[in-house]
Specification:
CATH class: Mainly Alpha
Number of strands: 12
Oligomer: single chain
Bound molecules: protoporphyrin IX containing FE
Mean pLDDT: 93
CATH superfamily: Cytochrome P450
CATH architecture: Orthogonal Bundle
Length: 448
């Protein structure tokens, strides 16, 4: 079996003998146990070895640093020890120059420019596109006793991406771009990392080439201006000191951003719909507040009116965070929790595990949106207790966009539909790389 570069350890192997844990089998390490049940794997090790332990997956040696303090230490990275690029090396072939795959000053410079595309004025424009796209998309959904929500919302999110990020209207062109995009995303998480003929990675590499050429050809028109999609924003974006993206940077950033936005938003929307189908009282309560807004589509100025929606969203992101593990690579030796960790070590911190910490959350395995109410505010027990969007320099730049999209969707969806779970529903989810229901989440979808 070839896991190729994912199993190639990086850097010089320095001893980790003093760190508790086990590295598993030669070559394969603990990969199979980890893939079978990632959370169970880590919980068991934490109980056995304590909050800091080594393990071996994908051929590399990784040190897990468990807990909210560890998340804060690694993500805030005050000593500039940790490379995100080398941590996320799995994504390097398809998204080599995306924002998350840049480090330190280079990353900061790019992020400053990109920030211009997330200011209130462009966000207002995106909201209009989102609302129109959602209306079009859910208007075509057919009520059914077995409506597979996951593929439906995945398609819709992709269509919204084509329109809001790229400024494409629906049609054959968008369908082709979408397909390339589907291929690229599938390849980004493929086990086989070499672009061998017939492999997912080969399709992904081809898709990347197609997309970059396609984006590049559109740059002159987007630069000419007048459009309000994110692509146009990237073409015109300037940081405060006047820096801007060249053509190569525009296409790479766009390509990565589409990937970063897509499966994550799809995942959390699916968790929310599962939750509202599972807990009809929450569905009724959220619908009540949606109807109280009194408009078919949610306006940018009304975004803050959906307080219960917000609680369900926050709980969905706690309960099943779309990015449960965050990898980093220590460029320099560091000390944490009483251990000296040598340079050139892969490190893993986990919002997903911290979100289930009984010392931070009351009955963490319970889906309970009221834990985010003002009087309970369990998320305020630690600055890094709730970190579905990460933290520090690489904190999700699309966080507000994602929240806006979720609110806009829920607002329209609950006005027109109700959902319930079929009697034979089995709650089976794939935990990594991004959580998704193994059965597509069949729901009973009824029109209201
Ligand atoms: C619910 C939806 C989303 C979740 C849970 C999520 C989560 C995350 C997390 C955890 C990170 C940090 C990764 C790390 O530190 O290693 C991140 C980074 C990023 N996200 Fe999101 N994301 C979501 C939606 C979006 C959307 C909609 C966009 C774009 C519009 C986006 C664009 C990005 C980008 C560009 C980065 C890299 C930021 C940097 O390195 O400076 N994400 N996201």
């Amino acid at each position: 079996m070839t896991l190729s570069e994912t199993i190639r350890p990086q850097g010089t192997a320095r001893p980790l003998d003093h760190v508790p844990g086990d590295l598993g089998l030669p070559i394969f390490g603990n990969t199979f146990a980890f893939l079978k049940d990632p959370f169970g794997f880590h919980q068991q090790r934490r109980e056995q070895y304590g909050p800091i332990y080594k393990f071996g997956v994908f051929g590399g040696r990784t040190v897990a640093l468990y807990g909210a303090d560890a998340l804060e230490y690694v993500l805030m990275d005050r000593e500039k020890n940790f490379s995100s690029r080398k941590g996320w090396r799995l994504l390097e072939r398809l998204f080599p120059d995306g924002l998350m795959l840049r480090d330190f000053d280079d990353h900061r410079g790019h992020r400053r420019i990109m920030q211009a595309a997330f200011k209130p004025k462009p966000m207002r424009d995106y909201m209009l596109h989102l609302n129109q796209g959602i209306a079009r998309g859910i208007g075509a959904w057919a009520p059914s006793d077995r409506f597979e929500f996951y593929p439906a919302i995945k398609d819709l999110t992709l269509e919204l991406g084509a329109s809001v990020f790229l400024g494409l209207t629906m049609g054959p062109e968008a369908a082709k771009v979408n397909q390339a995009f589907v291929d690229e995303i599938a390849a980004s998480v493929a086990v086989l990392r070499r672009p061998w003929p017939g492999s997912q990675m080969r399709r992904g590499v081809k898709a990347r080439a197609f997309l970059l050429t396609y984006f590049r050809d559109l740059i002159p028109a987007r630069r000419a201006g007048g459009e309000d999609d994110m692509f146009s924003q990237f073409c015109q974006a300037r940081s405060e000191d006047g820096a801007y993206f060249n053509d190569d940077e525009i296409v790479d950033h766009l390509n990565f951003l589409l990937m970063a936005a897509h499966d994550t938003t799809t995942s959390v929307l699916t968790t929310m719909i599962w939750a509202m189908a599972q807990y009809p009282d929450w569905q009724d309560a959220v619908r009540g507040e949606v109807l109280a807004v009194g408009s078919e589509q949610l306006s940018y100025d009304d975004l803050d009116k959906l307080e219960l929606t917000e609680r369900v969203l926050k709980e969905a992101l706690r309960f099943r965070p779309p990015v449960p593990f965050l990898p980093r690579f220590a460029e320099r030796a560091f000390e944490f929790g009483g251990y000296e960790i040598p340079a050139q070590t892969s490190v893993s911190v986990s919002p997903g595990l911290v979100h289930m910490d009984p010392e931070l959350w009351n009955q963490p395995t319970l889906f309970d949106p009221d834990r985010f109410s003002d009087n309970r505010a369990e998320d305020r027990r630690h600055r890094f207790a709730w970190t579905p969007f990460g933290g520090g320099a690489h904190k999700c730049i699309g966080m507000h966009f994602a929240i806006m999209q979720v609110r806009a969707f829920v607002h329209q969806f609950l006005q027109h539909y109700s959902v319930a779970l079929p009697d034979d529903y089995q709650n089976r989810w794939q935990a990594i790389p991004i959580p998704k229901p193994r059965d597509g989440l069949p729901v009973i979808l009824s029109r209201r």
